[in-house]
Amino acid sequence: MRPGGGNARVRVIAIVNQKGGCGKTTTTVNLAACLSGEDARVLIVDMDPQAHATLAVGVDPDEIDENLYEVLAESDAGERLAEVIIEVGPNLDLAPSGIVLSALEQKLASERVDTRTERLSAALEALPEESYDYVLIDCPPNVGLLTFNALRAASEVIVPLETSRFAIHGVERLLETIALLTERIGHELSVRVLPTLYDGRTRFARETLGEIRGLFKDMCFDTVIRTNVKLREAAARGIPISSYAPSAHGAADHAALAVEVESASPAGAGASLGESADSATEAREVVVRFRDAAASDVRIAGDFNGWVPDKGVRSLIESEGQTRIWTKILRLSPGTYQYRYVVDGEWRQDPDNPEGASGSVGDSNSVLVVR
Fold first, then answer.
1. Taking Cα atoms as reference points, which of 162, 200, 366, 225 lies closest to residue 297?
2. pLDDT tens by residue, 174-216
3. Beta strands across the sheet bearing 42-46
4. Is 314 helix (H, G, I), strand (E, B) or coil?
5. What is the bridge-based pairing of β-strands 284-292 and 190-196?
6. So what's the pLDDT on residue 95?
7. Helices assigned H by DSSP within the chain
8. What's the pLDDT at 1?
9. Cβ atoms within 10 Å, residue 322
């Protein structure tokens, strides 16, 4: 297994933000559970000495004999990673943390920087080939040795960003730090920003989400993680939201995030519109419209574009009095398609389309038949 892009099958994703309380652990655990529910093999690596990810999957760090400290503290201990891994669900494993991990920086203080920041990467490479499809690393709320280890091991970074203006400033500084690190070590990272703790009922949150999208553009996920008390309840009980409350907003949002993450895979990206020559000759333009007086951002996602909002879609926006109308122009071949709108970060069915079907993104999808 070769992290950082060495193995086409494994994707190593670090979940990073130096600010606490922005949803790093919530993102790590619930994204991992959703991915594993789609038959992917997933490993959660808890690099935070507070061990919140460990607790969030029902493991008491005080009840286990060894954790990542034993793996990372010794230069030849990479092969020991498999020994500390715990199975916590179907297709879902955990490399647990503990408070002792906070002593790792002092333990390795005398070593060269490049050597001590490669410990996690070496440990992951020592795992058998094709052990996992995804490795998700939950990082501590600072940019120190543990986070540097995660970034060296990863090929991708997800930055959970609370929808507040103060948080935006901190993330800008973090992205600068990541850019400097990648330049220094010659290791490219794909970085994406995930809006979290979003309350779409407030005008302030909607305006801030618009500011985030305008600032980070294509770096920003289309999925938004809404504020949801069920997420906190699930974490307190050591159960992912998809098992604790599968009908809650938190479950729908993380299912949508999993679809978006899967679609970003070079090997598993969703089909593009007009993908083949045969379908291109049969395809025709299909127009759907969404009307809303309060919405500021509307996108469309479906099985016709790999569930990546507005991928391959032409959009027009116009107004009728106080109502804004989003026109989505799709190029589709004859067939039946499932889709949903993403309205200010929330997945919704088409209010003008009574045809529906159950699907993996949200409670139900709208159905479009092209003849």
1. 200
2. 888 788 777 776 778 889 999 999 988 888 888 888 888 888 8
3. 86-89, 92-95, 42-46, 134-138, 11-15, 156-162, 190-196
4. strand
5. unpaired
6. 96
7. 24-37, 52-56, 68-72, 81-84, 104-107, 113-116, 119-125, 145-153, 165-185, 203-216, 229-236, 241-244, 249-263, 277-282
8. 58
9. 7
